[in-house]
């Protein structure tokens, strides 16, 4: 049964930054919860509740990121679409322990073999991905279903990844991770047709201002999905060295999208024209991506950081779809 969270919002107007304050309590006893983690999903911006269960979290601009509240032994809560400023009271439900149903089906592969392909798909088969280490690899449970040729990953704890290449410690909480294979083997080339990758992510900066790492981050950012969406927010796609095509024809920005909203505001409305585009980036070699727009008559809400809703309606393919944990930057990168 889905557990409910009591959230009480009190809104005030703020003219610049987004500041969220609140208290986290036990839903049953109403006592404050000390040490709960509160963070914007996909960012390096987060905090912990104090002895009174209180927290305050702030970003320079209003955004469309989801606020995540978690604590060991409680059901994690996620709050999307926060206003510019709010005061929250969040009641966390205790997590009910239950015995998992055991289904006996054939799993023909060793943990070592499954872990190898999982890490390549989770971290990325790139220089950044190969430089990553999963600190708590023993907490990751892997299962290959021979009936539908899928490899699933589960973890009761956040997966902790040390990314030495980009200088981040990353905590990723799996909600769903599944690799779909064409045949009953773990070969990746011409055998994987889809990888489902969903969860919440928090970044901790471990770079200590290293200039080499700063350069790697900039290279990872150029041509990334976040770079592209930020360019859409600014209406600056071409100046950011992106080139668009539809079929074999070049596409001007005016034939690709229209943006509206106050130029001094943080959120913009964007409407896309046409169903599928090819994206090139002039500063990246061997770069070719696709963008499929599943909802044609939808107005997308975008923020300065590169977040947007509805998230599931824009589907990236090609180079942009290959980004994994080892190449990802927090949403507040560059701010």
Word description of this protein:
- With 335 residues, this protein is mainly β.
- The longest helix is centred in the middle third of the chain and has 13 residues, at 111-123.
- Strands 9, 10, 11, 12, 13 and 14 form a six-stranded antiparallel β-sheet that branches. It has a five-stranded antiparallel β-sheet with strand order 16-15-19-20-23, with no helix packed on it.
- The protein has three domains: 7-92, Carboxypeptidase-like, regulatory domain (Immunoglobulin-like, Sandwich); 111-205; 222-327, no CATH class.
- The chain contains four helices and 23 strands.
Question: Keywords, please?
Answer:
335 residues, mainly beta, Immunoglobulin-like, six-stranded antiparallel sheet, 4 helices, disordered N terminus
The low-confidence runs, each spanning 5 or more residues with pLDDT under 50, are 1-15
Rg: 21 Å
Q: Please count the beta strands (DSSP E, at least 2 residues each).
A: 23
- Largest β-sheet summary: 6 strands, antiparallel
Could you give the topology of this structure?
Elements: E1 7-11, E2 18-26, E3 37-40, E4 46-48, E5 54-59, E6 67-70, E7 77-79, E8 85-92, H1 111-123, H2 127-130, E9 132-134, E10 141-145, E11 150-154, E12 159-163, E13 168-181, E14 192-205, H3 211-221, H4 225-234, E15 242-246, E16 249-251, E17 257-260, E18 267-272, E19 276-281, E20 289-293, E21 300-303, E22 308-309, E23 314-318
Parallel strand pairs: 2-8
Antiparallel strand pairs: 1-8, 2-5, 3-4, 3-6, 6-7, 9-12, 10-11, 11-13, 12-13, 13-14, 15-16, 15-19, 17-18, 18-21, 19-20, 20-23, 21-22
